[in-house]
Amino acid sequence: MTKTYFIIATVSYLLGSIPFGYILVRLFMKQDIRATGSGNIGATNVARSGAKGLAIATLVLDAGKGYLAVVTGQQIYEHSLLRNANAPGTYWLSIPIEELMLTAGIAALFAIIGHCFPVWLKFKGGKGVATAVGAFAALAPKAVLVSLLVFALVLIFSRYVSLASIAASAVFPVAAYWLHSDLRPAKLMALLIAGPALIIAKHHENIRRLIAHTESSIGAKSA
Fold it and tell me: Which helix (H) or strand (E) covers residue 174, if one does?
């Protein structure tokens, strides 16, 4: 299955690397979003450009590509099993769920990696939050709801999108472990930890600004 996993990882990475924020701002505003605000290609920075509609579209599309990566990855895995089965018509009943979930975890992680390090933009991308929401919604929807609740609460009380994103990312693996028993195998949990860990690492500059009390909050101009 190594070849299949490699194909899934590659397809997921390419899907995740589609820079919707960059594309939309370039198409509709004739600007490079990387020259605005924080220089990020995600929805938050697109909103800072003043294009609220494009920000919403970026959010939806970034989440959508994460979801699509996981669904596509699972389909690739299923078709690979069917192609090698002696009785394709009955093999659907014996698809190993643990392997299918592991495949979804690989797809989710590489979609996030693709968004954070897109080949099309010299590997300088976004922070992966929206893409992770979409990818993990296909894999652990109850845990995603918990993470979104944490995001909303932290955002309301702190006014910092970055802090809310970090908190939601940190909570997700714990919520996934407790709310989804089929996600508890060690290999799969490692993937579910790796994605949020990458997102938190991508917020390293925000963390420094939060500690220094210079991070921009909602309603304030970007630093």
Answer: helix 161-179
Burial tier of 223 (Cβ tally within 10 Å: 0-12, 13-18, 19+):
exposed
Using one digit for the tens of pLDDT, what is the confidence trace for 92-108?
446 678 888 999 999 99
3-class DSSP assignment, residue 192 = helix
Return the SS3 of 1.
coil
Residues in the chain: 223
Which ranges of 85-160 does DSSP label H, i.e. alpha helix?
88-91, 97-116, 129-137, 141-158
Burial (CB count <10 Å: 0-12, 13-18, 19+), residue 151: buried
Per-domain residue ranges for the chain? 2-212
Residues 38, 46: Cα–Cα separation, whole Å: 10
pTM: 0.91
